[in-house]
Amino acid sequence: MTRQHPLIGITGNYGEKGCELADGYYLSVLRAGGTPVVVPPHEDHEALVDLLDTLDGIVFSGGGDINPLLLGEEPSPLLHSVCPQRDAAELFLVREAFHRQIPMLGICRGIQLMAAALGGSVWQDISLSPAPPALLKHSQDMPREFASHTVRISEGSLLRNILGVETLPVNSFHHQAVREPGPHLRITAQSPDGIIEAIESSEHRALLGLQWHPECFILRGDETMLPIFRWLTDEARTFAQAKHIHENNITLDSHCDTPMFFTDDSQENITMFGTRSDKVLVNLPKMTEGRLDASIMVAYLPQGERTEEAYRAVTARTDLLLTQIEEIVRANSDRVGLAQTRADILRLKAQGKKAILRGIENGYAIGHDLHLLEHFRQRGIVYMTLCHNGDNDICDSARGNAEHGGLSPFGREVVQEMNRLGILVDMSHAAETSFYDALELSTVPIVCSHSSARALCNHPRNLTDDQMRALAKHGGVAQTTVYQGFLRTDGQATIVDAVDHLCHAARIMGVEHVGLGTDFDGDGGVPGLADASEVINFTRHLLQRHFSEDDIRLIMGGNFLRVMETCSRS
User: Fold this and answer.
1) In terms of Cα–Cα distance, which of 450, 339, 327 is closest to 388?
2) Residue 76 has what DSSP assignment?
């Protein structure tokens, strides 16, 4: 059950009496429907992370300058006082809150902190910026509950949507300022002299930074700025609901290619998976941050020559990749386990562990030896994608030459044997002819582990509406993927496009037949859903599209697990 009033952390300032907080911050949170909690500055990172995991949103409050030494700069003579008790702790908090998708609002010092922590930069003093000579007086002695100058808000921005105005009088008192917002944020308001006054997420996250003090207006009874705090509490409420869904249900990504990054150095693979490495999009810390319970890691085999020598090599390669998956799990067994069934995943979740399932991408792995299917089933695979980019001995590929006109005679034996063994038949990458042949032949539902909608992006790898209808009729599932080229043919795809594809599939097939197969580490990933840490952001967007909790339970794992169980019992 989610909290009616989301828990909003507010970072405390540091003064003569220790941790201090101006009353405008917590009163504004209360007025907006949140429950405020003070986050004191300290150096215990483990305790800070534990606190973050209880919060639904966080406000980074105003205060002294940020120590430039922490940002790799020497201090300017124009620098004012710094607060060493706050700086390192709050830079850490911003980064960890960002990794966990926690809604953030930065005020005054808070906007500068957000930019600095997330790859941007800060002017130590506005006079160092290339602003026009007639620089506004951003630092004034007048009371903070009155406006000092105006800002212009960008059209189409989150802030413009929240406040509904283009020009806004603000009480912006500062001498440090954002210089560059960094790769994750964009500028959305500036003063007439060009100083950056607001930034927000460029990746459809709930992040907003303001150079002025909205809480001071609210404190004197002016509600002009109250929508900003209402936005934060609304986002926090949605985030709390998303956390509740993930806590009480299984969240599963049906396709990731992380083993593609494995090397011959076992320790390197173990470290890469066990730590928050930037080398891969799926590892234990990122799964934890995104509240992803289970991931199906595949042994990916690019289509190669179809000779006896090549078949021996590709079978050995498949075995090696499956062994490497087992090694990284065994080495991190305190936090993760291997799974092959829904019961395995539930058991691991109850133990506080993540689950790794295994699959094969490209039936090329078995060459034309049917007996290898039983071998790979014993090695723990839950599905095999019948082909990749190119025809093989089993079937025609969506990117092939229509060699067989669908399934080959050997391919028909493969589908029947997979049914017998309880291995899911995965038709992502397959030609339409192969898809319909498998659908007709299989005695259990089939899956498309990472396929999006052709109606929204005309790519042969995507499913037509007719394919979706047929798949649903036979009880199967189509897992929306987040590969740029399968989401849109022009421009940068984002999480919004991925959600659009899933919504389209749900309209065509019904919500009982859709899910998420990211293709992370196989070139999958878009802004807003760029790695496993952002999976909960997908849930947040589904809630904003008015999917119910029951719907999301099915989408984020329930549907795929149902088909897995049906297949294993056949």
Assistant:
1) 450
2) P
> What are 501-529's pLDDT values in tens digits?
999 999 999 999 999 999 999 999 999 99
Q: Return the number of other C-beta atoms located less than 10 Å from residue 347's C-beta.
A: 14
3-state secondary structure of 235: helix
Q: Which of 73-82, 377-386, 417-426 has the lowest mean pLDDT?
A: 73-82
Give the residue-averaged pLDDT of 447-474: 97
Q: Got the DSSP string for 256-283?
A: E-GGGG--S-HHHHHHHHHTT-TT-S--
Find the domain containing 342 and state its range. Answer: 249-569
- What is the DSSP annotation of 203-234? SS-SEEEESS-HHHHHHTT-GGGHHHHHHHHH
pLDDT over 70 (residue 532): yes
| Tokens representing residue 100 in the block | 């966990």
The pLDDT value recorded for residue 136 is: 81
Going by DSSP bridges, is the β-strand pair 177-180/121-123 parallel, antiparallel, or unpaired? antiparallel
**Cα 537 to Cα 525: distance, rounded to the nearest angstrom:** 13
Pairing mode, if any, of strands 196-201 and 381-385? Answer: unpaired
Q: What is the CATH number of the domain that holds 452?
A: 3.20.20.140
| Whether residue 347 sits in one domain with residue 329 | yes
Residues 6 or more apart from 278 whose CB is under 8 A from it? none
Q: How many residues does the chain have?
A: 570
Question: Residue 334 corresponds to which amino acid?
Answer: D
Confidence at residue 134, expressed as pLDDT on a 0 to 100 scale = 63
Q: How many domains does the chain have?
A: 2
C-alpha dihedral sign at 358, 567, 287, 98: positive
Q: How far apart are CA 388 and CA 304, in angstroms?
A: 10
State how far the Cα of 290 lies from the Cα of 98, in Å rounded to an integer.
11
pLDDT score of 1 more than 60: no
* Long-range contacts from 43-52, C-beta under 8 angstroms, 24+ separation: 43/88, 43/89, 45/92, 48/89, 48/92, 48/93, 48/96, 49/96, 51/9, 52/9, 52/93, 52/96, 52/97, 52/100, 52/102
Q: Both 220 and 282 in a single domain?
A: no
